[in-house]
Each structure stands twice: as C-alpha cells, then as structure tokens.
Amino acid sequence: QQKVQQSPESLIVPEGGMASLNCTSSDRNVDYFWWYRQHSGKSPKMLMSIFSNGEKEEGRFTVHLNKASLHTSLHIRDSQPSDSALYLCAASGGSALGRLHFGAGTQLIVIP
Amino acid sequence: EAAVTQSPRNKVTVTGGNVTLSCRQTNSHNYMYWYRQDTGHGLRLIHYSYGAGNLQIGDVPDGYKATRTTQEDFFLLLELASPSQTSLYFCASSLTGNTEVFFGKGTRLTVV
After folding, report:
1. What is the pLDDT of residue B22?
2. Do B50 and B66 form a contact (C-beta atoms < 8 A)?
3. Contacts of B45 in chain A (CB under 8 A)
4. E-assigned strands of chain B?
5. What is the pLDDT of residue B96?
6. Phi and psi, residue B85, nearest 5°
7. In Å, how far from its chain's centre is CA A86?
8. Contacts for A43 with CB less than 8 Å, ≥ 6 apart
9. Do residues B19 and B81 make contact, with C-beta atoms less than 8 angstroms apart?
10. Residues in chain B within 8 Å Cβ distance of A42
11. Given a cut of 90, is residue A3 above it in pLDDT?
12. For a surface tag, which of A77, B16, B60, B102 has the fewest beta carbons within 10 Å of its beta carbon?
C-alpha cells in the first residue's frame, strides 16, 4: 500500500475554474510535503512545498497543510489549459530522511 | 537550473539481458535517486545515495543494483532483466534529503 494517497485520480475542470487536489500521508514521521507537476512526456518539476501548518500562496496556486492529519491540498484558481498535467504529491522527513515518497498522482485536464 | 543527465534515453533489451542506466548531475548535490514510474503507481524509489560510495535501499529494490562512483555519477544495474522491469526510469538529485528534487528527462526501458 502506498504511503501517500492522492485523490481524485483524475479531475476535469473548465478553463477559469478552480481545481482542488488532495493528498494524505500514512507515515506519521513525515515533516515535509511537496507538490510536483509533470506535463505529458516531461519529467516532474517541483511546483510548491509546505512544511508548516497553514496556507501558502504563489500566484494562482495555494497549498494547505494540516500536520495533525498529515493532509495537504493544492488549489489552482483560474485554471488554464496549460495547467493540464499529472500532479504528484510527495512526503519526506523524520526517520525517512532522503526517502521521498510519491503518491500515484492526480491527472488534471482543463477544458478550454 | 539544476542539471541531471540520463543515458540512454531509450533502451530495448531481451529477458535475461544486462542493462546499465547512467546518470550524471552537475549540481554539487549530495543526494541522488533512481525512481521508476508506472501508470497507477506514481514514482517509486528504487535506490538512493547521499554521497560517493554510499547506497541506500529504496522501496522497490528487488532486481536492481546501484552504484555511486563519484559525487556526480549514479548508475542503475539490471543484471537479469525481466519484462516486469519495463518502465520509465528517472534519475534525480537534491542538495539534502529534505530539499527540492531535480529530475532528469528519463530513460524508457523495454524488456522483451
């Protein structure tokens, strides 16, 4: 069983809409959460990271973290077709230093 | 931007064959990783290293060996390739175990 669970598996939103992606770790040792984005045929690239409880905003992207429940979410407002990609959540830290565990990903499709 | 170079980019081998995947990073990063990516599983960690001569076992190590010969170079060895090892392999590097991970462009391996 994967230590990082993502939902939904796939998500279709209209251009200009809000996309909300979820991620939960089952490993209570993790301290750091990451969101990576992978466009089709490309390698993953880090989108955002969050290490403390609360919210972090960068442009159209907002990440939330609740460390007590080991849950993070990524919200994309004013979604654009160029946002269509596989979004991968990852967790690391604690006794698992260096072991970055990824979820299976959420495939986001933004329809023009 | 951080540079991670993988070779070859594509490889076809027969069942039982030997394969070596190569990775070089020029970022002066301490950590290097080998992941495989399969639909429905996200990225799964095979082996990783935090310095020349060091090797750590990942989550799916069976059938794989790895060697970190220098700070820059990390190799993945499949000594008796099997069709189940057909996958997209990514090499990656990071400065520490809890910093951004930079990925290479990937090697698509097919075992027939």
Report:
1. 98
2. no
3. 99-101
4. 4-7, 10-13, 19-25, 31-38, 42-49, 56-57, 65-68, 73-78, 87-94, 102-103, 107-111
5. 87
6. -95, 5
7. 10
8. B90, B103, B104, B105, B106
9. yes
10. 105
11. no
12. B16
In whole angstroms, how far apart are CA B72 and each of A49, A60, B25, B36, B80?
A: 26, 36, 5, 20, 26
Among B40, B59, B105, the residue with its CB nearest the CB of A43 is B105
Q: Which residues of B touch A (CB under 8 A)?
A: 31, 33, 35, 40-45, 48, 50, 56, 58-59, 90, 97-98, 100-101, 103-106
Instruction: Give the three-class secondary structure for B52.
Output: coil
Paired sense of beta strands B19-25 and B10-13, if any: unpaired
CB within 8 Å: A49 and B100: yes
Residue A47: closest CA among chain B residues belongs to which residue? Answer: B100
Does the beta-carbon distance from B44 to A102 stay under 8 Å?
A: yes
Say how many CB pairs under 8 Å bridge A and B: 55
Residue B84 has pLDDT above 60, yes or no: yes
Which residue(s) pair with B87 in the sheet? B109
The whole-angstrom distance between A42's CA and the closest CA on chain B is: 7
Is it the case that residue B88 has pLDDT exceeding 80?
yes
Sequence length of chain A is 112
Nearest CB to B41; choose among A32, A34, A104: A104
Q: What is the pLDDT of residues A42-83, one digit of tens each?
A: 999 999 999 999 999 999 999 999 999 999 999 999 999 999
